[in-house]
């Protein structure tokens, strides 16, 4: 039994989610290899992950933007050596891995949150209102992993790095045109220890800047948002937490002016400690909050900023 | 261009489903069903492209029970031209759905297939990508903008770091994200007109596709319950609790 984990990266850093996916792969019970389609430095970083016994490095520029068609061709070409192929359930893995699954005639097991055995997995369904235990009868398992459900591996590895991907015939049906990446000095939403999210009640971009950002900076938090806040254009789309946005599970999640729709809860209810600040004491968010403060956010947040000290 | 829009009948997004006591699944008896919200966005986008003159024909297809007709009719009322219901009882997995859609593509020869990025019942997010793979077509997932540019389709995608734009050769598969558009409500006259639009019906078994599930659901359980905590009276009390009780600050 050998598993291949497809590394997730932004061209500069190996994601936290990759390390956690390695943990999920380890639970399948065999060797774990990692495929890095990207710069050499990321392959080097992957080789240091605990539990990894080999790193495959595809350095060709064709993979740089992780487009689905070349990525799928690369992975399918390597699949013969593996019993399981896993990727973090981020937008890259969700994009190329189902393509791999179909080419291998396998039913993908999406966004697993637990490994019960080499063919049995837990996965949330219906916006996390239920958890299914599913058993796969496919000879090869193709799996995306909800990384927040797993810890990063302990220890440091020193796996050998081997080049791959020479001579793979790549489909040329899609081309990268442009990207508009959100730049922030704050921690990345999915890896952050503290997340503070704002909802529709914030009312504007300026209010996010005036009320949420200073607190985030004070406590080293990442900033998230509800769909309502993103749709209204207060913050960029990649801030959205929820069933159809990002799933986070920080030590502390602070929900400000968010009602707590099931779709939002699906993205944050596994946080260790949840704080809700909402002026409506009936807001559903309070049913999952460890600490609830019924207050107007425009009065509470300045006080919170002061109370957090210098 | 000709567009194919697959739509799925799912539990309405406002319903909080309950797990059955025998853990065999969730209780769907007497629960409101609707078109998957992402599929409504796909229908809306197709209709807008038609209104802009980029698209000539919109075909809607659903795989599911007889009742999925309601969702096809809704799409027709929104502006799609004709429908195809592929009847199947019980669950049809994404891979089998993709294979059925492949057969439909071979017959209908669309230039673009517009799907939802994710069905909100099973939350799998894979059917569109699988169809693209089986057809050997390009894919643009999680689209927040779709534009025809010469013989290419430019798709802006919502990705973890922000937005990415790619150019796809046609035919292509596009899956919709929430911010692509806001779907219209069908007007009463259009709902009436939709009743006269053609809606074909075929049984899934006629397609020669193996529908045997690859995943067996052993059980469905409730997620671990979170106990509601306490209400604090002031910001000072909150900060004190976070520091000294929870130890997270
Ligand atoms: C297919 C689909 C997918 C979805 N996916 C997601 C998702 O991934 N993530 C997500 O978040 N949502 C998602 N949604 C949307 C979700 O259903 C809710 O509409 C959304 O989460 C509501 O956002 P909100 O809580 O900010 O706004 P609202 O529900 O409007 O809540 C605003 C809250 O702010 C409070 N408030 C108002 N003024 C103040 C004040 N001055 N001080 C303090 N509190 C105040 C109000 O009491 C209220 O509780 C999805 C919906 C659909 C249909
Ligand atoms: N039974 C079905 N009938 C029609 N379309 C479907 C069906 N299942 C999935 N789809 C389409 O595939 C998309 C993604 O579904 P999924 O991969 O199951 O999350 C949906 O938004 C639909 O557009």
TrEMBL record, chain A:
Keyword annotations of the record: Electron transport, FAD, Flavoprotein, Transport
Cofactors required: FAD
Gene Ontology terms: biological process: fatty acid beta-oxidation using acyl-CoA dehydrogenase
Entry's family note: Belongs to the ETF alpha-subunit/FixB family.
A GO term, aspect molecular function: electron transfer activity
Name this polypeptide is given: Electron transfer flavoprotein subunit alpha
Co-factor binding details: Binds 1 FAD per dimer.
One Pfam family, short name: ETF
Residues annotated as transmembrane: none
Domain Electron transfer flavoprotein alpha/beta-subunit N-terminal: 3-180
Annotated source species: Parvularcula dongshanensis
Function: The electron transfer flavoprotein serves as a specific electron acceptor for other dehydrogenases. It transfers the electrons to the main respiratory chain via ETF-ubiquinone oxidoreductase (ETF dehydrogenase).
Statement: the UniProt record of this protein carries the keyword Flavoprotein: yes
Automatic annotation (TrEMBL), chain B:
Annotated keywords: Electron transport, Transport
InterPro entries: ET-Flavoprotein_bsu_CS, ETF_a/b_N, ETF_b, ETF_beta_N, Rossmann-like_a/b/a_fold, Sigma_54_int
PROSITE patterns listed in its UniProt record: ETF_BETA, SIGMA54_INTERACT_4
Keyword Membrane part of the UniProt annotation: no
Domain Sigma-54 factor interaction: 58-242
Cofactor(s) required for function per UniProt: AMP
A GO molecular-function descriptor: electron transfer activity
GO BP of this protein: carboxylic acid catabolic process; regulation of DNA-templated transcription
Family named by the database record: Belongs to the ETF beta-subunit/FixA family.
Chain's role: The electron transfer flavoprotein serves as a specific electron acceptor for other dehydrogenases. It transfers the electrons to the main respiratory chain via ETF-ubiquinone oxidoreductase (ETF dehydrogenase).
Assembly and oligomerization: Heterodimer of an alpha and a beta subunit.
Name this polypeptide is given: Electron transfer flavoprotein subunit beta
Organism: Parvularcula dongshanensis
């Amino acid at each position: 039994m050998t598993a291949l984990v497809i590394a997730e990266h932004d061209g500069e850093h190996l994601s936290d989610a990759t390390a956690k996916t390695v943990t999920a792969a380890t639970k399948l019970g065999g060797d774990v290899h990692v495929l890095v389609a990207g710069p050499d430095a990321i392959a080097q970083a992957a080789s240091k992950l605990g539990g990894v016994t080999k790193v495959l490095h595809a350095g060709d520029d064709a993979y740089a933007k992780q487009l689905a068609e070349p990525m799928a061709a690369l992975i399918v070409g390597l699949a013969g050596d593996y019993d399981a192929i896993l990727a973090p359930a981020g937008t890259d893995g969700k994009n190329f891995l189902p393509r791999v699954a179909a080419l291998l005639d396998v039913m993908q097991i999406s966004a697993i949150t637990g490994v019960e055995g080499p063919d049995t997995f837990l996965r949330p369904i219906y916006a996390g209102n239920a958890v299914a235990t599913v058993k796969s009868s496919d000879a090869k398992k193709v799996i995306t992993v909800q990384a927040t459900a797993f810890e990063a591996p302990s220890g440091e590895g020193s796996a050998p790095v081997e080049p791959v991907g020479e001579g793979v015939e790549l489909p040329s049906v899609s081309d990268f045109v442009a990207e508009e990446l959100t730049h922030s000095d704050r921690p990345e939403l999915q890896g952050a220890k503290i997340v503070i999210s704002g909802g529709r009640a914030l009312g504007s971009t300026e209010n996010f800047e005036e009320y949420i950002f200073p607190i985030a900076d004070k406590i080293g938090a990442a900033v998230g948002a509800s769909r309502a806040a993103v749709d209204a254009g207060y913050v960029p789309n990649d801030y959205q937490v929820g069933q159809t946005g990002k799933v986070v599970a920080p030590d502390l999640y602070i929900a400000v002016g968010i009602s707590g729709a099931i779709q939002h809860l699906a993205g944050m209810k596994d946080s260790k400690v949840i704080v809700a600040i909402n002026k409506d004491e009936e807001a559903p968010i309070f049913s999952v909050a460890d600490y609830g403060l019924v207050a107007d956010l425009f009065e509470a947040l300045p006080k919170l900023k002061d109370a957090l000290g210098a | 261009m000709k567009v194919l829009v697959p739509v799925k009948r799912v539990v309405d997004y406002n319903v909080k489903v309950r797990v059955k006591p025998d853990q065999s699944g969730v209780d769907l008896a007497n629960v409101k069903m609707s078109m998957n919200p992402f599929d409504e966005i796909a229908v809306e986008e197709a209709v807008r492209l038609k209104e802009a003159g980029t698209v000539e024909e919109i075909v809607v297809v659903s795989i599911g029970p007889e009742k999925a007709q309601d969702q096809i009719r809704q799409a027709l009322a929104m502006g799609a031209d004709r429908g195809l219901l592929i009847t199947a009882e019980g669950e049809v997995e994404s891979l089998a759905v993709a294979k059925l859609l492949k057969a439909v593509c071979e017959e209908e020869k669309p230039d673009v297939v517009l799907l939802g990025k994710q069905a909100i019942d099973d939350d799998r997010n894979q059917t569109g990508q699988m169809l693209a793979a089986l057809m050997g077509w390009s894919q643009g997932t999680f689209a927040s903008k779709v534009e025809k540019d010469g013989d290419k389709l430019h798709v802006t995608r919502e990705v973890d770091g922000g937005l990415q734009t790619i150019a796809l050769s046609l035919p292509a598969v596009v899956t919709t994200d929430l911010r692509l558009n806001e779907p219209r409500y069908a007007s009463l006259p259009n709902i009436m007109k939709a009743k006269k639009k053609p809606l074909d019906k075929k049984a899934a078994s006629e397609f020669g596709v193996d529908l045997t599930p690859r995943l067996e659901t052993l059980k469905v359980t409730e997620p671990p319950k979170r106990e509601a905590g306490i209400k604090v009276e002031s910001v000072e009390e909150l900060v004190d609790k976070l520091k000294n009780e929870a130890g997270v600050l």
